[in-house]
Amino acid sequence: MTANLKAESVSFAYEPGRPVFNCVDASVAGGETVGLVGPNGSGKSTLLRVMCGLLRPQHGAVSLNGKPLSAYAGRDRARRVAFLPQAVNPAFALNVFEVVCLGRYPHMGAFGALGPRDKEAAERCMAGTEVEHLRGRDFLTLSGGERQRVLLASILAQEPEILLLDEPTSALDIHHQIEIFSLLGRLAHNRPGGYGILVVTHDLNLAARFCDRILLLGLDQSMLAEGPHDAVLTEPLLSRAYGAPIRVSRHPETGAPLVWAEAPREEETGEKWDTPHKAPSEGRRGASQPGDAP
Amino acid sequence: MTRPGRNMAAAALIIASIGLVVLSLLVGTERVDLGQAWREWRDGVPPSQAPMLGIILDQRLPRTLAALIVGCGLALAGAAFQAMLRNPLAEPYTLGVASSGALGAWTATILIGAYGFPAYLLGLPTIQLLAFVFAELDIIIVYMLAAHRDRISPSVLLLGGITMGMLANGGILFMRYLADPNRVVMMDRWLMGGVDVLGYRPVLTLLVGVAPCAAILLAQAPKFDQLGFGPELAAGRGVNVRLLQASTFVVGSLMTAVAVSVVGTIAFVGLIVPHIVRSITGSRHRLLMPVSAVAGGGFLCFCDIIARKILPGETPIGIVTTLLGAPFFLYLLLRRRFTDWDA
After folding, report:
1. Are strands A162-166 and A67-68 parallel, antiparallel or unpaired?
2. What is the predicted ipTM?
3. Which domain range does residue B172 map to?
4. How far is B136 from chain A (nearest CA, A)?
């Protein structure tokens, strides 16, 4: 049976009466990459945390392989669902191998000893994301792209079925973004019963090119659309989601949708395009990214 | 450093620490003749009539054990607070836990001595109980000042902790000012710290208070590793971060409170020891924490040797650790890497 993580009509609010999203459905199954997109403050990161069990929805339910997610104990869950948050700031210097081995935590015994099986898994995962040559390097000295590949290896070391990734490419240059996304594609498709990957991203073009399905969250606390990129990445849907004119054409080579936002005209700048709802999840990390507001 | 290299260095550190503990038994104002002590032991002379054996068993051993247990406890508490708060400058002293515990202990002593307060409350010694309550209040206040949602401000944490520590020391000084001059000497013990305990009762108090706490903290080592990469990644891997935080704060401050209630405030042990050990063993807490515990014991024995042999008279050990620790603290502040620690 392929793994399956499903959120059914979930609602979540950090403060009562101010829901981040209402009655939203989302799912990811083994062997597919699903892109979770939407404007700042639409609750993408919050939805990811709800699906990972870090936050409990006030309404609705999340199920993993047909069983309620809350019925799994913490480490039991972590052996099936792995979560990579957006900003990972290590407080201590560890080398790459040690960082990858941290992912073995859900499999460890009481005293945290690493057995041969753990080391084997760590080696395999480092090979999977092509970071074996970095094994002895201090994690803090790595470049952004290398760090992300090491962190991916470390969550793969949990040997999960589902990966939940929060903007894994937000700090990377265009080349490393493509590199990470094609790696995700391989992880989902290259093995029988491959990983199910749910990835939050702001880059609609990367999502169009590499994701099998796309979930579009709107600012009205609902899931606006769900389906293959052709059905979701359309001008009317995107313009509604982002509250701004969004244009879609075709990528000249891949034929995938090519999305861009129109620059605001003089008289229309200002309040109209300010995000109407500021979710605390975004505010907590500081101000919204200026590049995302048209 | 390579893995075997690290293990070797850690082993050398442990051996050196044990050596310091043994040395602490032998060094002091009076020369110890081991051969004579052995003969007295073999002949079954009671310690009260055996000069050499008496010195070792009645004076040196309890004192060394006190230094060993307190050093272990403070170093472990330091390592745990640093992991918990993701900050290399966190330790029982800089967080104000040690001074607040000492204030609690001193308050209890006054209440018992001057106002006929019961020495035992709920079956627990009042001194240790009050030291624990004060230490716990301190860490709760400092944490609430510094934490915002799941983030912790390192500068507020340290400023808050140091301020709370100053407040507690001010409280001790105020009571010292008001106190009967005969009690002042005793009171200075809580300000300067001293492991010159008499007999085995204090040692037993230390052991009962510190050992279980140490065991609990050591068992959390793999979770502290996870926390090093942020609370969210740790939670995603199945660590109950809230529970870990609460238990570490309670257990770490309890351990510190018991230690300072017996020997007073001993600064910077929890800072220096884990830091030096980390540079040798790396940051994996499964190795870092037990080695820190042993090295902390060795370090405090070393400071006690300096206090009684090298410095004039019987210098309180807290003065020695402060004179060693404060420059080290400044050195850490000078190194810019500390700013990278913001959670």
Report:
1. unpaired
2. 0.84
3. 3-31+59-341
4. 25
